[in-house]
Amino acid sequence: MTPPDHRATPDLGTGPRAAAAVHRAEFPVRTEEDLLEARHAVRAATQEMGFGLVDQTRVVTAASELVRNAYIHGGGGTLVVERLSRPKGSGLRLTVSDSGPGIPDVEAALADGFSTGAGLGHGLGGARRLMHEFAIECPPGGGTTVSVTRWTAG
Questions:
Q1: Prediction pTM value
Q2: Is 118 left (phi over 0), alpha (psi -120 to 50) or beta?
Q3: Residue 105: is its pLDDT beyond 50?
Q4: Of 38, 64, 117, 135, which sits most exposed with the smallest number of CB within 10 A?
């Protein structure tokens, strides 16, 4: 996956912030029921990892916004949930991918109030604010992949 010019994908490979995925699960995002399943799976992962209630809510909210965007704007897709481990704590990385038309103007889409649908236009930017790390890829020809990570205190 090649990151676009204006966004950097977090490097988790070396240094004091190096992290390794210790558990990975993939969920389809094709129906309204899949959206609920994704929320429940992310909530369970945050609880099992020891996130506090506020951080659980942040992560679940970000997941909900991203999978709903993939469902509505991308025609469905996948959610990958990865539990990460590093020397000073653990984290949860969510990667949502779809094969839709892509996002023509990523910067505009990240601004509050921007929407190409019936929503309020806070989803993508809100997900970015709720998480510690955010990366988005919209290659020419369509499709969108958003990866977000939240770390536990540790």
A1: 0.80
A2: alpha
A3: yes
A4: 117
pLDDT higher than 60, residue 128: yes
Q: Is residue 106 part of a domain?
A: yes
Contact 3, 135 (CB under 8 A): yes
The CATH number of residue 32's host domain is 3.30.565.10
Range of the domain at 64: 21-151
Cα separation of the two ends of the chain: 29
DSSP 8-class letter at 152: P
**At 102, is the pLDDT very low, low, confident or very high (cuts 50, 70, 90)?**
confident
Q: Which residues contact 67 (CB under 8 A, 6 or more apart)?
A: 29, 34, 35, 38, 39, 77, 79, 96
Per-residue pLDDT averaged across 122-141, rounded? 88
Helix, strand or coil for residue 143? coil
Whether residue 118 has pLDDT greater than 80: no
